[in-house]
Amino acid sequence: MSISSRFAVATHILTLLALENKGNPTTSEYLAGSAGTNPVVIRRILSPLDKAGLVKTCSGVGGGVQLARDPRQITLRDVFQAVERPNTLFSLGKRKKNLSCICSRNIDPIMEAVFQGAETAVSDTLSQTTLAQVAQQVIEAEGRD
After folding, report:
1. Could you tell me if 71 and 138 are in contact, meaning their C-beta atoms sit under 8 angstroms apart?
2. CA torsion 131→135→140→144, rounded to 10°?
3. N or C, where is the chain less crowded by C-beta within 10 Å?
4. CATH architecture for the domain at 6-144
């Protein structure tokens, strides 16, 4: 199973914008420094976030990115759906069926149902957590140090 880091980095970006971006655009260089990655990676993640209406980008001098919506109205499900392909949590993989094997002939639909249930549970959990809640948890975690 291979889940990309796009969702985690996208959540990092958006949380930082919620915490620090009070109407002023933030550069991809600044976001990259915070997330510990390259500005190019940040820009690649910002593109689908922009298309999903989660951020607004402005190029040129003084440009950057800012949240397009109130962080209380952005759920982690919104973020996940913006940056990840559908059905990316679990995969049957590409393999040849062995028609002489009872398991090989029948396991795929069973596992697809299990995967669907798990993905629904994850989606439901993500839809219950807003970006504002994540930002608040970051603030609270800072105070525990």
Report:
1. no
2. 110
3. C
4. Orthogonal Bundle (1.10)
Q: What is the pLDDT of residues 32-78, one digit of tens each?
A: 999 999 999 999 999 999 999 999 998 888 889 999 999 999 999 99
Separation between Cα atoms, residue 116 and residue 100, nearest integer Å: 27
Whether the CB-CB separation of 28 and 64 falls below 8 Å is answered with yes
Q: Which amino acid is at 113?
A: A
